[in-house]
Amino acid sequence: MQRIIQSSKKAMICLALLASATSCVKVQRNCQPAVQNPQSDHDTEISVYTSQPTFRSFRETVKYEAIGSNITSFERVLERIKSQARRDGCEALVNVKFYKQPIGNGRFSSAFPKIEAVGVVFED
Fold first, then answer.
1. Of 32, 25, 104, 105, the residue nearest 65 (C-alpha)
2. What's the CA gap between 27 and 29, in Å, rounded?
3. What percent of the chain clears pLDDT 70, i.e. is strictly above it?
4. Nearest-angstrom CA–CA distance, 86 and 82
């Protein structure tokens, strides 16, 4: 009986480690986009600005927030946001902020990459 309990504990630990090691990125939109653009993900390049550009006027359309996993890089999270922004018809991302989202505390704590951005469409 103890052998079954020990082997099931080991199996649960292995499943938990496997689930935590998957490289997933969740993108969350805070409002609906004004324009849905069914273009391919690679048709247009999305410009990225860490502040608001002053050389062109723009209109904010969508706010994005994405969190990766413990093995996901900031680049991968940013690429997922850019991919979603292309589909939403955005031309650029402004006010892009990079964070480390702490998960857990103690022995198995980690920090996941988190990015917040605002999708915009240029008006001129």
1. 25
2. 7
3. 63
4. 6
